[in-house]
Amino acid sequence: MCAKHSYALAAIQAVGTEVGIDPQTAAVAILMGIRDYFVRFPESRVSEIHLIASTLNMYEDYLNVFKLRRRTLSQLNSYELTMFGKSVKLILGDITDETADAIVNITNTELNNKHGVSGAIFLAAGDSVTEECSRIGPIPNDDGFVITGGGNLKCEKIIHIIGPKKTALIITAVEKILQVCEQHQLSTVVIPAIGTGNVLVDVYSSISAMLDAIEKHLSYSPQSSLQEIRIIAFTQYVYQGFISVFERKNAKGVINKTIRHTNVKLKLGNITDETADAIVNINDRTWRKSSGISGELLAAAGESVIEECSHIDCKATIAVTEAGNLKSKKIIHVLASKLIAESVENVLQKCEALTLSSVAFPALGTGGHGLEPQITITLILDGIEKHLAKHPQSFLEEICVVTFCEDVYMDYSEVLQNRFKDPQEINDANIQISPPEYWADMVIDDKVKKITLLVDSEEYRNIARNFIQTSDNTDIRIVKIERIQNLTLWRSYSIRKIQVDKKNPYRVNERHLYHGTSADAIRKINHHGFNRSFCGKNGTKHGFGTYFARDASYSCHSVYAAPDENKYKYVYQALVITGEYCAGQESYIEPPYIGEDPSADQYDSVVNSVHDPIAFVVFNDSSAYPEYLITFTR
Fold first, then answer.
1. Could you tell me if residue 438 is inside a domain?
2. Residue 545 covered by a domain
3. According to the model, what pLDDT value does residue 290 have?
4. In the chain, what is the straight-line distance between the N-terminal and C-terminal CA atoms, in Å?
5. Macro domain: which residues (predicted)?
6. How far apart are CA 22 and CA 58, in angstroms?
7. pLDDT value at position 16?
8. Looking at the structure, do residues 310 and 176 belong to the same domain, yes or no?
């Protein structure tokens, strides 16, 4: 209003206890409101604002807040939780007052946003940063971020990233920010409340997405350089909304265990907040249960899902709907049953059919059936293990069990920890390594056994589908797929995996990757594995190791998969222990050390790009197992 009438001076009555508000709280709110205004309207003609206190006590309360403001509003309101040994702080304040290795600027593609928090950052950073951004030009689509100096801010770097417009994109943005920090070995980073400005993502979705991304990153990065991650809430409203989610996150940690190649997670929380591909809803015969967790889940999903449920066949025992307002892609509705392990298997089978990579279960059986938590989690784990044993090529990367009750969480965690105790000591001679359950029987004299898969088997279909989908070539004709069974190689690989899993307990250490080869190398690989002594035949761009590709299209190239006289080409689908990786260099003959201390651990592999790894290089011959040989033509 003052600006509208071109007033330069404004006087505001200070409020406090006479209207039921604590004076210090009121003072902070007024200061934040004034700051918000000038960030949004930097060209305002208002040059002076007076706050009028009606009593001496009110004056002293406001004065104390103003003195604190000179140190930084960040110190007035903050909340901290610990994730995987790292500090994650929520602060109410001005991001331009923060001191850190890096400050994140959520901006536009052209790097010239003069509004909101981004405008405040550019203004405070000064002309040097503005000029650097002008020289860089628009943010490239392939990276989605640029890095500049800190200018007048109290940071070494500013990470500029395009503002995400959806909750799912917030997760992607935060993951990218943290990866950049790791690449530059930064220990502190400050991130604004993403999506709560002009994009208007609700505050709960925003902070939930940010914390989910931070949690995921830290769980997979036990050697993270980051020691402190700060999230800055710009207004009291956003801060209060964020606090409620922080408090819920701070209630308990997250437990991760690996079953075969799938991460099984236990967490305390509300299943409606989950971002998994699918959320499981335990329903009744009406398929529209209105009570308990099911009722809460359907209410959160919205009317469109309730309407979709009304069309489910009443004789069905499992059904899939869209997720509505939830953050997942699908809801898998399953009929409540005491046969918990069987229900879990049915749900996971449905996930495989839909090629989903993650699913979240509630605490099955602890509601209406009244079963003891120790029994229900045992049955849930039985179902998970049984399914994964039947599906060695499972699409599922993560299975999460979410409980809202702390007592149930404690019971579940005890069973989970005892069931999958980490090995305390690795003694190669005493380790009993069993072959995979899906292998065909072998006698002691069998050094190598090749099993040609049946075309109509699920094992064949899964391998063929992944191969063709990532080959980018619909003209490929698969001649046959053979499973390679080599007990000696399997034992060496399994021992290596135990070692890496112990070193990196919260990371996905194993991947299915591709390796193209020629016909004359097949017998050597089947009997002796991938030998890095032969590296250099097709280049050593990222180091002198054995190369594997995320996508079959890379390995199918004739440079790697040279056709034989019948025009047949050969690509292995291999199990590869990638562990913790870094960017490779042509001079590497082994992975570099993590940090500068030679007594520290080495990286387990190197890649072409830490942000989007496509090529992986391992330097230990036991780090890869030639699981399947795919013979094909074009």
1. no
2. yes
3. 82
4. 72
5. 75-250, 251-420
6. 10
7. 55
8. no
Q: Is residue 427 in a domain?
A: no
Integer Cα distance of 26 and 22 in angstroms:
6
CA distances to 254, 289, 342, 475 from 273, in Å = 15, 19, 26, 42
Give the CATH number, domain containing residue 629: 3.90.228.10
Residues 203 and 288 both lie in one domain: no
Which 3 state secondary structure label does DSSP give 251? coil
Q: How high is the pLDDT of residue 249?
A: 61
Does 101 share its domain with 150? yes
Assign 500 to helix, strand or coil: helix
Q: Would you say how long the chain is, in residues?
A: 634
**Rounded-to-integer distance, Cα 502 and Cα 420, Å:** 12
Give the pair of three-digit tokens for residue 612: 């989007």
Judge whether 306 and 358 are in contact, CB under 8 Å: no
DSSP label at residue 123: H
What is the distance between the alpha carbons of residues 456 and 372, in angstroms, rounded to a whole number?
41
The answer to whether the CB of 2 falls within 8 A of the CB of 40 is no
Range of the structural domain that residue 290 is part of: 258-419
Helix (H, G, I), strand (E, B) or coil at 351: helix
Low-confidence stretches of the chain (pLDDT beneath 70): 1-6, 14-29, 31-33, 35-45, 56-57, 60-77, 142-143, 197-200, 222, 244, 247-253, 367-370, 406, 420-432, 443-445, 506, 532-539, 596-600
- What is the Cα–Cα distance from 138 to 131, expressed in whole angstroms? 13
CATH of residue 323's domain is 3.40.220.10
* E strand residue ranges, 412-506: 449-452, 477-485
* Whether residues 45 and 82 fall in one domain: no
